[in-house]
Every structure is written in structure tokens, then in C-alpha cells.
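Subgroup meeting minutes
Present: P.N., E.W., G.H.
Scribe: E.W.

1. P.N. recapped why we're keeping a running log of single-chain structure predictions: easier to compare across weeks, and new members can see raw inputs and outputs side by side.
2. G.H. added today's entry (462 aa).
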Amino acid sequence: MPREIYLVKVGMSMTEGMVAEWYIPDGGKVNKGELVYALETEKINLDVDAESDGTVKHLVEIGVMLKPGDVVGYIFEAGEDIPADLGGIGAVPAAEIAVVESSPPATSPVDPTPAPERSVSTEIRSSPAARRLAGELGVDYRILTGTGPGGRIIEADVMAANKGGSATRTNVKASPLAKRLAAEKGIDITRIQGTGPGGRIVQADIAQADIVQADIASASSAGPARAAAPQGPAAGERVSVRGMRRTIASRMHQSLQQSAQLTMDMEANMDDTVRVRNALVEEWAAEGIKPTYTDLVIKAVAKALQAHPLMNSQFMGDEIVLLEEIHVGMAVALPEGLVVPVVRHADQLSVKELARESSRLASAARDGSLGLDDYAGGTFTVTALGMYGVDSFTPILNEPQSGILGVNRIYDGLEWDGDKPVKTKKMNLSLTWDHRALDGAPAAEFLVEVCSLLAAPWRLLV
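Output recorded in log:
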């Protein structure tokens, strides 16, 4: 009997996935342990190896969305008859699969010849093998045009870009954000002199290069300067809700339906935090470590959770489980959606260790190289919108967690020294909590503790 090739389940939260690439062609030979296909889920990509020797026969095409455990193909032993129709062996019922590419919408009877609809996705579709090869060759695969199924970037595209020198090189010292911005703006990153630690190219360098590039274009143009083409989908287009976006939509809606969420704001005095952070940036510059305000908030949250364990809990219906370990999730915004990698044992890390780990997680999230362990086990989440000038927002719980803290912008505020107003640095923190697990008073006490720690940040360093 042939051996089934299953769509493997990775992580308890996985509900669907697809064969992103077949490494062994239909009818090709495979040895046990060799890679047979690439799995793609809403969060990660994984290479799956063969469990036996034989001939591989595909049951599903690339890009078909399936459930974990569905059969995607078979491995026939040497000398075993291979039937022309594999459906009788155990094909996946048609009702259980959904093709990733969206079907064209039905046309309206009023207009027999409507303009064709376009389906837009912000995902960068690329095979794990292509990304691995791009990393080895120093090619930025994110700016390539894919020639694989559905415009997917495959190894041949990376090889062609490397040979022709048409892709932005990534073997330069630059932050992942700087690389992405350079690719979006069409800037040759190899021509930029970095101003970051050790000559590293940072976001500000890309912004300056963009200004210079725009000035040059304007000066050389015979007519008035034209506005740059907008990034992302244009008005009138339809964006398919799939992959990460579909998962986010489902989980956020489920979170709001299945928990009793309330949000409160509280003002934190950031005078000393600003001073401490600036000093740490200068102190650790030679090591390439640049702590952010969010890093300091995560550290304050981790310390406060030790004193307020109800906030580090899960509501399980007939009991509330107070968790022993403190793992703080940090929301990272990507073009295709939001991911939440986890800073594990955040309460046990020094500020330097936490800053290093959060930087690693953010870079891996933007590079698409996060692993399962990077997502696992979060007990509380911190999400930041302060960099966009936001003063207050309502975060949604990352179930089954009982709390999530929103980090807003730092602004100039006032405090009173008697009758004399004193200018200070302030930040609003937005806490959403599950009222089923704890009431408003203990939630407020937790938030007071976080604000107190930020007002005296030396407590975070001991």
C-alpha cells in the first residue's frame, strides 16, 4: 500500500494550510528524509520531508487550501502499481478544500460587459527554497517578479536576479526596515552611507536618500514634478481576504464575541524614562543595541505582572488559571497583517537582553523567518501605535490572554509644582482586559504599577 503524504499540523492554532511548492515532481523518485513539499500557513512556512522511499504522486495542486491532516499525495514503493486515478485511494473531498486564488465575482445582469475585476494581495508569494537561496546569495527576493504559479517567486527567479544583478543586494549593513523601504522606493541601498551604529543603514538614511532622489528627479524634469504612485491597493480594487488577513479577521471577531473586554487609559510621566532610554542608546551603540520605549514598557509590564498575577491569567469557563511564567507578546505590523512574536520569560531578562530579543523578533517578523517557538506561549501582549502619533486606542485581546496594553505617543504635558506649571513628557497607556477574569479595580492597580515603574525607570534596571 502507498504511504500517505499529509498536510502536517504545526502548532495548536493551525486551522488550514497549503502546499506552496512541490520539491519532488509528480512521478519523481524520493528517498526517505528528502524534502518533498513546502507547507505554507497563515503564520509560517515549513519544509516537509518524505517518510519513506518511492515514487511521489501529487493529489493536490499548489495553492489549494486544506485542513491539517488532509492527504496531499502518496509515496508508492518500488514495483507497486500506480493507478491512473488516485481519487479512489482517499482523495480530499471537494467540499473541504478552497483554492487560494479568489474566483471572479459574479457579473451584474444590469451591465453585461463590466470591466474585469482585479484581485489584490499584499502577500509576497515566494517558496521557502527561494527565500533560503536568496539569503545565501544576498538577493532581496521581495522586489522580484515571480514566474511560478500565481506569480510565486521560485528559485529560478532568484538565480536569474543574482546572475543579472537586477535585485537589490542584501549583504550590506542595513536594518530590515531600511531594506524594505529602499525596495519600495526604488533606492539603490548599496549607494547609501549609513549613519547608524557601525555604519549601519537605518530608516533615516533611506528617508534622506528619497528626498535627494526626488530633488534630482524634479530638477531634471522639464515639467512640474509628478506625485509618486501610491503604494498598495488602489480605489476600486478588491482585496482578497485570505491567509493572514482572514486569520486576523476571524480571531479578532471571535475575541470580541467570546470575552467581556473593557479599556481604560492612564497617563504615565516619562521624563526619567526618556533620559534613561537616551543614555542607554548611547551606552550600547557600539554593540548595535538600541532600546525602544516599547522595550521599556514591556519590561515594566513584565515586572508588574509579577505583582498582579490575575492579569497574567486565562479565563477557562469554570476556573481562572493564573500562569506561572511571564511571556510578553509584541505586536509587529507587516504589510500583509499583524503578527505577535513572544518575548519569553520577559521578567527574567535584563533591559539589554530584552532589547536585543525584541529587535531579533521584529527583524525576523519582517523577514518572514519567525519560527513556531517565536509565536508560542504568550501570556500578555503589548502593542504600539505611538510612532503614528496616536494618543489613545482600544486594543483587542489576544485570546486566551486576559490583558493587552496599547502604547501611545510621548507628548509634552504639564504637572503642577504648587501654583507653577512644569513642562513634562507624558504618555497615555491603553489597557484592555477581560472583565470575566478580573474587575476594574485590580486592572487599574496593575496599570498604576506600570505607570509607576515608567516614572522611576531605574527600578527596571535592577
